């Protein structure tokens, strides 16, 4: 008995043959189906699939060969083994049976056991074939899955290779950035020992990488900061946080550098610190410019204040100086009151110079710049100083003859030398020392400008150096010595304006001033002034002249009654006929009524209702050739004067004295 139940379809048009075969096979345990024609067989096959078919050749309508072909043409049945059972024994029929798709050919009458053996053999072959096909399919599936897995692995490998290549490219780019960045980069281990520095670090500090690798960054320590700053820094980064701050370091050559530093812990994928990474930006020049900006803002604030008070203050001084001078003229020289009035004049002139200094240091005043032989002025100043400085101070001069000139105010050049030398004298007053003054021409290149941080253009300059061997200046004071009203002298020994005024004078003529000092080793001031080597000598000498007089008619306009009265007294004393007005609108009406009455108009600029400039323009409309002198206590107020005007002949600054006013009036009327 077979273990597996196989289905056998027996197709034979003879019932007797079906019965014989069926009985035999049924006893062997097979499940049987029967068909007596081809149509009936195809109908059964449409409903069930047998494991094997026994097929008679000779049948009506469709013979066994044709039926076998039909079965083999259908995908559903083509794998079913077909055994022919027939009485036809000729070789042609046998061949035809195999050609139609049969797997065996059994002739009748047949031996039942032979038939059974052949059925078993073909069923076993079919099972083996099915098993092989299944294993084949399984193998193909495994191969397919393997290929798919290999393809996926290739893709993963390709992606990994791409990621690795990208990472390598990132590392290379990072390396290029580290090498080319202008910021200093320092990498240290956990102990703070340097493991890497970039080229920017080498350029700025002067240390090569071989000199610092393995060493602690404390070799850059300047000593200009407290240990608390470094402690705070280490406490911060050791706790895994980022530290940011400003550090003053010392380069290999001993120079100092201010750096904005950011120091970060370096963490790997395990989130543990593996060292520290520092990025440092040189802020030395930036901080210097920031300090210069703050200084400039201070000067601007002082300038605004100075400009606001200059006009009114100079009006007051005009009255004080003018009336004092007139009073002196009315008194005999030997009169004791005359001496007292001289002191009033001296004090008034000091106040006048003080206003000038304030305006100069804030650059709110326009100075008349003329070609000046600086060497001659310095030599003259040194003669005056030698007479006033005690012999315990040795004076050394090295004044080269410079035939070219500097466009400057000669009085201010004299003031620079006197102020600097006086400061040096005070620094050596107790113990004595050496005061040195030198002057030479020097060409300043672009490299010099960049190296020293000069705020000037390259070109020819005169370099004035004033040095002393005195007490020196503290670093904290050194940064502020050019600030107005900042002084290290005792109360009553100085106003604090000296160096601020010098700074204003030098910058006003496009020069530069610098200072170097060490405590106990003295101080050196260096001044560079733009120099024209080819300029002809033009030295202005003050020539005392007699006060000129006249007899013309003058209209004097000023909203300050004291000043109009003073002007009238001065001018009438000089022989002129003077009409005064304190209201500019009324002055204009008077002038319009009889313009030919007046030979000259003197008018203040800043007046309510109608400014002196507006008044001048109106008068020029009425009488185009009328000569006009403008007076003001603040030179910036003349900015609105029409430069093409033929009538505004001169501007006179308040406070003015009798000589200044007399000369101005005469020059305008005569020219």
Structure description:
The chain is α/β, with parallel strands linked by helices and 671 residues long. The chain has 19 helices and 22 strands. The strands form five sheets. Strands 2-1-3-4-5 form a five-stranded parallel beta sheet, with helices on both faces. A five-stranded antiparallel beta sheet has the order 7-6-10-9-8. It has a five-stranded mixed beta sheet with strand order 12-14-15-17-16. Mean pLDDT is 82; it is low at 490-496 and 535-544.
Strand-helix topology:
Elements: E1 7-11, H1 15-27, E2 31-35, H2 38-45, E3 52-56, H3 64-73, E4 82-86, H4 91-99, E5 104-107, H5 112-180, E6 184-188, E7 194-197, H6 199-205, H7 209-212, H8 227-238, E8 243-250, E9 256-267, E10 273-282, H9 284-329, H10 336-361, E11 370-372, H11 374-388, E12 393-399, E13 406-408, H12 410-427, E14 433-444, H13 446-452, E15 459-468, H14 475-478, H15 498-508, E16 512-518, E17 522-530, E18 553-557, H16 561-573, E19 577-581, H17 584-593, E20 600-604, H18 612-622, E21 628-632, E22 648-653, H19 658-670
Parallel strand pairs: 1-2, 1-3, 3-4, 4-5, 12-14, 18-19, 18-20, 20-21, 21-22
Antiparallel strand pairs: 6-7, 6-10, 8-9, 9-10, 11-13, 14-15, 15-17, 16-17
Question: How do you describe this structure in short?
Answer:
This protein has 671 residues and is of the alpha/beta class. The protein is built from 19 helices and 22 strands. It is 46% helix and 21% strand.
Rounded to the nearest angstrom, the distance between the terminal CA atoms is 155 Å
Low-confidence stretches: 490-496, 535-544
Q: Sum up the overall morphology in one term.
A: elongated
Task: Please bin the fraction of helical residues.
Answer: 40-55%
Largest sheet data: 5 strands, parallel
What is the quaternary state of this protein?
single chain
Mean pLDDT: 82
Strand order of the largest sheet: 2-1-3-4-5
Number of strands: 22
What is the radius of gyration? Answer: 59 Å
The proportion of residues in beta strands is 15-25%
Please identify the structural class as seen in this structure. alpha/beta
The number of helical elements comes to 19
């Amino acid at each position: 008995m077979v273990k597996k139940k196989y289905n056998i379809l027996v197709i034979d048009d003879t019932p007797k043959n079906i019965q014989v075969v069926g009985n035999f096979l049924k006893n062997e345990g097979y499940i049987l189906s029967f068909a007596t024609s081809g149509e009936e067989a195809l109908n059964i096959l449409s409903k069930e699939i047998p494991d094997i078919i026994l097929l008679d050749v000779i049948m009506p309508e469709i013979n066994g060969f044709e039926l076998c072909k039909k079965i083999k043409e259908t995908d559903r049945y083509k794998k079913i083994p077909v055994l022919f059972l027939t009485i036809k024994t000729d070789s042609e029929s046998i061949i035809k049976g195999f050609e139609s798709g049969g797997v065996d050919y059994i002739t009748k009458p047949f031996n039942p056991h032979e038939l059974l053996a052949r059925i078993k053999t073909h069923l076993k072959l079919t099972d083996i074939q099915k098993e092989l096909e299944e294993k084949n399919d399984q193998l193909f599936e495994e191969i397919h899955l393997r290929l798919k897995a290999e393809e996926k692995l290739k893709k993963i490998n390709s992606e990994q290779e791409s990621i690795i290549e990208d990472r390598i490219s990132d590392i290379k780019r990072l390396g290029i950035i580290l090498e080319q960045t202008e910021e200093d980069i320092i990498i240290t281990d956990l102990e703070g020992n340097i493991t890497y520095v970039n080229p920017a670090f080498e350029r700025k500090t002067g240390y090569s990488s071989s000199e610092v690798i393995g060493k602690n960054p404390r070799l850059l320590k300047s000593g200009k900061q407290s240990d608390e700053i470094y402690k705070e820094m280490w406490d911060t980064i050791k706790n895994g946080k980022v530290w940011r701050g400003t550090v003053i370091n010392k380069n290999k050559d001993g120079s100092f550098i201010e750096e904005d530093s950011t120091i970060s812990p370096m963490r790997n994928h395990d989130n543990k610190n593996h060292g520290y990474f520092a990025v440092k930006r040189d802020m030395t020049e930036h901080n210097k410019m920031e300090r210069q900006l703050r200084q400039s803002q201070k000067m601007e604030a002082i300038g605004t204040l100075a400009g606001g008070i200059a006009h009114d203050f100079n009006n007051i001084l005009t009255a004080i100086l003018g009336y004092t001078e007139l009073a002196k003229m009315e008194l005999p020289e030997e009169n004791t009151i005359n001496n007292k009035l001289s002191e009033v004049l001296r004090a008034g002139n000091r106040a006048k110079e003080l206003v000038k200094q304030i305006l100069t240091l804030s650059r709110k005043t326009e100075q008349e710049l003329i070609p000046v032989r600086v060497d001659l002025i310095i030599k003259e100043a040194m003669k005056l100083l030698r007479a006033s400085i005690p012999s315990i101070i040795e004076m050394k001069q090295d004044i080269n003859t410079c035939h070219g000139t500097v466009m400057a105010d000669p009085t201010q050049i004299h003031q620079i030398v006197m102020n600097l030398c006086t400061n040096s004298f005070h620094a050596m007053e107790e113990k004595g020392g050496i005061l040195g003054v030198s002057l030479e021409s020097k060409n300043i290149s672009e490299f010099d400008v960049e190296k020293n941080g000069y705020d000037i253009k390259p070109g020819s300059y005169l370099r004035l150096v004033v040095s002393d061997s005195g007490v020196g200046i503290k670093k904290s004071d050194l940064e502020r010595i050019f600030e107005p009203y900042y002084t290290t002298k005792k109360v009553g020994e100085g106003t604090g304006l000296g160096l601020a005024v010098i700074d204003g004078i030098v910058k006003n003529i496009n020069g530069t001033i610098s200072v170097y000092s060490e405590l106990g080793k003295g101080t050196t001031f260096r001044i560079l002034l733009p120099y024209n080597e080819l300029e002809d000598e033009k030295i202005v000498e003050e020539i005392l002249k007699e006060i000129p007089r006249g007899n013309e008619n003058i209209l004097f306009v000023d909203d300050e009654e004291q000043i109009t009265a003073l002007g009238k007294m001065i001018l009438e004393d000089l022989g002129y006929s003077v009409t005064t007005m304190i209201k500019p609108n009324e002055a204009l009406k008077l002038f319009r009524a009889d313009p030919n009455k007046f030979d000259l108009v003197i008018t203040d600029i800043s007046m309510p209702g109608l400014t002196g400039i507006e008044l001048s323009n109106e008068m020029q409309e009425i009488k185009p050739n009328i000569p006009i002198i403008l007076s003001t206590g603040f030179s910036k107020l003349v900015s609105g004067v029409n430069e093409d005007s033929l009538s505004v002949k001169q501007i006179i600054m308040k406070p003015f004295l009798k000589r200044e006013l007399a000369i101005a009036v005469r020059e305008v009327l005569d020219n």
